Amino acid sequence: MGIRFTVLSSGSTGNATVVDNGEVKLLIDVGFSAKKMELLMKERELAASSIDGILVTHEHSDHIKGLGAFARKYDVPIYANEKTWVELDRQIGVIAEGNKRVMDTGGVEEFGSLKVESFGISHDAAEPVGYVFYEGEQKLSVVTDLGYMSEKVKEKISDSDALVLETNHDVDMLRVGHYPWSIKRRILGDKGHLSNEAAGEALCDIMTNKTKSVYMAHLSRDHNLMDLARLTVNNIVQERAPEAKQLRLMDTYFDRSTKWDVLDSE
């Protein structure tokens, strides 16, 4: 079948994505209660009991809110690096030792024919990561919660068929917003979140003729709008890479899942 994926929900209030290759189904983060996760999966005709593993990006609550309950209920192994596990052990309750799997940053795990590689990113967490999924020639990259796009990250996610990429905020909306300056400074900093403009600029450096779709993810409900994110990214791409006519900018939602996206098998 190759890789297919759905962003179950994405935003400041919670995040979760499913990647499926016909052999295994992997969940990236569990940012909602187990009950909410079940409802989101049901939208995509997916049984929560069918999940074979959970990959954790970092320990912030909008990514692990339901992690412990979900893993215990469905007896699912959790993959995270050692520093993240230190934080998870403080937050998610008791997990069966057999389900506590250490995946080093930069490490590769193979789930049948699906290969998963993690890579370090810049965020104010213990040791945050993004993930790249490989199935034959297909490549899917998932990267949110990063203050800036380093050259190493660009190298890891370049030439992807599809990306789930953070477009967290509009800089002007954030600057005039109601948050205290200390929080604004955190979001704008190198360990904060990627703006629409920064995402668009980075995209121009990493996309190729192979790149067909980019899912704009982790939008702030206070300091961004999906139409604005799409317009900003599209304008930057059209200015810097007008030949990229094949690229589709796709929405994600804080309250519902995206349709399954199936990567080309060519």
Automatic annotation (TrEMBL):
<dbReference type="Pfam" id="PF12706">
    <property type="entry name" value="Lactamase_B_2"/>
</dbReference>
<comment type="function">
    <text>Counteracts the endogenous Pycsar antiviral defense system. Phosphodiesterase that enables metal-dependent hydrolysis of host cyclic nucleotide Pycsar defense signals such as cCMP and cUMP.</text>
</comment>
<dbReference type="InterPro" id="IPR036866">
    <property type="entry name" value="RibonucZ/Hydroxyglut_hydro"/>
</dbReference>
<dbReference type="InterPro" id="IPR052533">
    <property type="entry name" value="WalJ/YycJ-like"/>
</dbReference>
<protein>
    <submittedName>
        <fullName>MBL fold metallo-hydrolase</fullName>
    </submittedName>
</protein>
<feature type="domain" description="Metallo-beta-lactamase">
    <location>
        <begin position="13"/>
        <end position="218"/>
    </location>
</feature>
<dbReference type="InterPro" id="IPR001279">
    <property type="entry name" value="Metallo-B-lactamas"/>
</dbReference>
